[in-house]
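Appendix C reproduces, verbatim, an entry submitted by the partner laboratory led by Prof. M.T., so that reviewers can inspect both the input and the predicted structure.
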Amino acid sequence: MTDKEFKVLHHLSQFVSDHKKDFVEKVLGNRTHHVTVILEDIFQSQNASAVIRTCECMGLQDIHIIEMISKYEINRRVLKGANKWMELHRYRARDNNNVEECFSKLHAQGYKILVADPDEDGMSIHDVDVTESKVALLFGNELRGVSPYALQHADQKIKIPMYGFTESLNISVSVAICLNALITKLHASAMDFGLQEEEKNMIRLNWYRKIVKRSDLIEREYLRTIQ
């Protein structure tokens, strides 16, 4: 964070109530990059929006959206503004293997990529050791499931144990079950899964800009006084 950004953060904080500041700090204290979610070609806006809302509620700071044949669209009624508080990374270049690009980026950052698949040879989500490495959970298209490339290049297949006749769950339900299992383990562990203070400051500034009414005008006026 630059000196100017730090000054802007301090200035905007004067327009944020103590109650909201406390809430921001509580949320920031539970935010993590240790677990993330990848959505591959989700075509129903209500499903993608429900997943993002679930991820935000569970404390994830990032979500990765792959668009090979389906464009990511939002459903504001379902989303409830959850995307404002997260970082959405989109892979949507034409004539490009966006799955490969996403995988390469996450593997370089130390993530183990787990693909949700109902086959019996997958590991139960409840058996995943979330403390071994950072984890990226991939969920595929509502009709076709996970792409062959994702299945071939993922580090592990995972499944949710089910005991009825129906073979699969709605994607938003699947994400909620998987994240609940992993995030609960993460909070019960002794590892430090939180954000670095420098990053907290940048996110804090970003959130204050969203919380404070007409923050852009306030920021511009303040910057004029210190230039």
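The chain has a mean pLDDT of 94. Additional entries are available on request from the coordinating office.
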